[in-house]
Amino acid sequence: MAAAITTGFLYASYGEAPGNTANPGNQVPAETTQSASDVASGEADDTLSPAQIALNAMTEEYKTLKELQYEGEEESSLYPKTMDLYLTAVKALELAQDEEQRLQVKNIILDINGQLLKGAFYYSNAGDQRQLANFAKAYVDSQRLPIFTDDDFKRDPRFYPTLVYVAASDSYNSGDYDRAKEYFDLYLATGEEKMRHQVSTFMGQACINTKDYLKGINTLSNAAILYPDDYQLVAMGIQCCIDGGYADRIQPLLDRALLMKPGDEQLLNVQAQVYESTRDYKKALDIYNQIAELHPNSLENTQRIATCYYNLGVEFYNKSIMEADEKIAKKNRRQSRAYFESASQYLEQIMATKPNDKQYLRALGITYGYLDNKEKFDEINIRLGALGEKTLAMGDVAEIMNGPLAVSGGGESTTSAIAAPSYQEFARPFIEGKLGEWAKRGEFEKIEDYQKRVTEGGLQAEYQNLKAQAEKEYLDKYAFSFVPRDLELQPYDATNETYLITTPYGEATIKVPLKNKEAEMFKSAWTNNNVEIRAPRYMIDNDKLAIASITFKTAAGKSYSYDSSKAASYQIPDVRINLDNYLKQTAAQAQTSAAKPGNATILAKTSDVDKDIPETGKKNNNTFAFIVANENYKNVANVASALHDGQTFSEYCEKTLGIPKSQIVFLTDATSGDFWSEFENLKGRITNRPEDIDVILFYSGHGLPDDNTKEAYLMPVDAQPQHTRTMIKLQEVYDGLGKIPNASVYAFMDACFSGSARESGQKDTPVVAARGVALRHKDVEPAGNVFVLSAADAQQTAFPYEEKDHGMFTYWLLKKLQESKGGATLEDITAYVTDKVSGTSQEINRRAQTPTHKATGKLSGTWKSKKLRP
What Cα–Cα distance (Å) separates residue 305 from each residue in 343, 352, 403, 823? Predict the structure, then answer.
């Protein structure tokens, strides 16, 4: 029967599929019209609430359906009544007023869920595509109702993905793209490979149709990695970037597209526009000049060349007046003049074709002004006056002309700030709901495992993890990236030489000197939308959103940054929750579930390294931390205590090592997209800083070697272990940070790369079930100044330290930081951790685990004396 369901519903034309046209006379009704009066006394009872009326109707329909089943009613009349009952139950759920009423609905929907599945099979075999789609949707939607969790249903992996696909295709073909996206998401979440390629394609198209460009970019970018030969996926992703105004997300897709079509003129043109949007005008010019050889009479291309030369002239002139070294300033002025001379030639060509184009006419006038060509400058002013435009003055500040692409979220999908609830209002129900689930004993969870899991330390760790999740979801939901209309520049404060900028999340004050007309130039750049907004970061202050830091960059390359005085000491706010209630709940469950009556539940204390964390008061403003803790994996075994590792390590970074909270990136259960997004953001924050920078990298989670190349990979939680393209190459991580000038990287890796899993209670469990032996990965040779301390040798397993609820490597690393108050040298830390981990592993696991270390660049000769804090 399953084969009959898997018919073709989606076609490359993105139109309606044959045989799937909706029949208006056979539509699923939006709601049942049956009332209690129809099924009971025959007259309305005004004393009953709407909820009770709906429940009565549902109960009577349920009785009728059961009687028909017992009487052997034919399927052709049985399944329509099943659908009617389902719709009545959904209506009753909407009206239900208390848990008892919701439980009534829940039990009935649970009972008929299998009938909905059988109905889908029946109509599939009957060739009734309309009813097949209706039953597929009902079967899938019933399991998504808020009264259920995934654990309430035992989905058959042979049928569930197919029915989700049927529901998605019907919604797509009927033009309900928002609903189709929900089903596509469900399909992708099943891990089913059969239709994943096609689903990814149509998800991308649905996102384009609904202008949900960012989701489209993420979906298509991930799909392009899985299906690297599909040009259509890449092209659609590029289109999402252009239509949505996300030029800063387009480059990886362009790189893939140009590999497949290296000489494609359209792609080259887009690449040039991307270079323009990122102000890499020289690279843009290289491409535009290539296009000019093919199309010498193209006005559009001439405009782009003129704009690039003009912007380079402006850029180098602005650099010249801000340069303190007169020798360099003179060189900049010479370069500026050369670019303006080239710009004038192309601008004159444009004026010959479009003599009344005010933008390019004004640019030509400014160009003549900077070339000291007074005669032609005056001619341009006469023409501007004739067009009713404001005339120019010699010495007017020139500004960058905008390129054709928006840099970030400039399209219709960009969302300005919206009203947000207080953080407590948002976080409390979120955490309470999650903790309630955490405190329940699983159906297949042994009592001794439950007692180990629900300790006081475990509760604290789960609370801290959920607190971090709540903050992330709150910021992700309500802290939108700024667009120019969200910000307002206030009048200049000449006394303090500062500008005040108001944002939706508070005020930012930046220092802009008066000298060399720098303040005037900044205001002019702001007025003409030629100031880039870089790396806005947010925090929660007084229970509401606030801006922690932001940078503004002008065309001259000058950056002006704001950092909140509160950002350095920022901690994720506590949420007002009584954790004792959850300890009582877990204690009661453990006692009533114990095999021997009267056994007391022992609640273990938090590990010693989680308590009395030293607070040194040191300020470590030139250090950043990038912490990734991956515990809950979708496709492989979980990593015991990884979240606890990351949480406690982040606290040591802040309290003991003195790293400002705003400079600590802490990712929990990170997907590949989460990792690279935050990684690139961190690189952007520290690149080009004049001072020496230290970066502490900490990772707790799975690692895996490639079967063929033996290269080491980190596994994000959504990775597919058989496909290394879904993982993160460790070499790229080290190189990405190590190649940053003035940066030293200190990496602590609580992961092994042998293919074995750190899983509580199990030894050497393979990450991929097909692997029965450990594999030796190829040595990673980091570029730049990098020190790495890893949890285990290449063929060993990194074990958990169950008694301490940490990875064994992490526990002894934290212990050394605790004992030394962060003042130990790397040599001391390495010797201590290696000795303790080796001894403890032999004692507990009867297996070897020997940490290893490596240093490159300048650190190869200096690492022994280095410390993690001043």
Answer: 8, 16, 11, 56
Both tokens assigned to 181: 């996206």
Q: How far apart are CA 552 and CA 559, in angstroms?
A: 6
Local structure of residue 392 (DSSP, 8 states): P
- pTM (predicted TM-score): 0.46
Task: Say which amino acid occupies 851.
Answer: P
Packing angle of the helix pair 456-478, 423-439 (nearest 10 deg): 140
- Taking the C-alpha atoms of residue 713 and residue 726, their distance in angstroms, rounded to an integer, is 10
Query: Contact, 340 vs 313, CB < 8 A?
Result: yes
Q: What is the rounded CA–CA span in Å between residue 255 and residue 236? A: 14
- Give kind and range of the element (H or E) at residue 623: strand 623-629
User: What per-residue string of b and e applies to 306-323 under the rule 16 or more CB within 10 Å gives b?
Assistant: bbbbbbbbbbbbbbbbbb
Distance CA 775, CA 794 (A): 8
What integer pLDDT is reported at residue 482 of this predicted model?
54
What amino acid is encoded at 439 in this protein? A
pLDDT at 706: 73
In the numeric block, the tokens 């008066």 are attached to 514
pLDDT at 421: 73
Query: Which pLDDT does position 28 carry in this prediction?
Result: 32
Q: Residue 384 and residue 400: Cα distance in Å, rounded? A: 20
Tokens of 581: 């209630």
CA distance 642 to 541: 29
Quote the CA–CA distance of 607 and 651 in Å, as a whole number: 14
Chain-centroid distance, C-alpha 576: 27
Q: Which amino acid is at 6?
A: T
Give 584-628 pLDDT, tens digit per residue.
556 545 544 433 333 322 233 368 898 889 998 888 999 999 999
The answer to whether the CB of 777 falls within 8 A of the CB of 712 is: yes
Q: Which residues of the chain have pLDDT under 50?
A: 1-44, 406-418, 481, 588, 591-605, 755-777
pLDDT of residue 459: 85
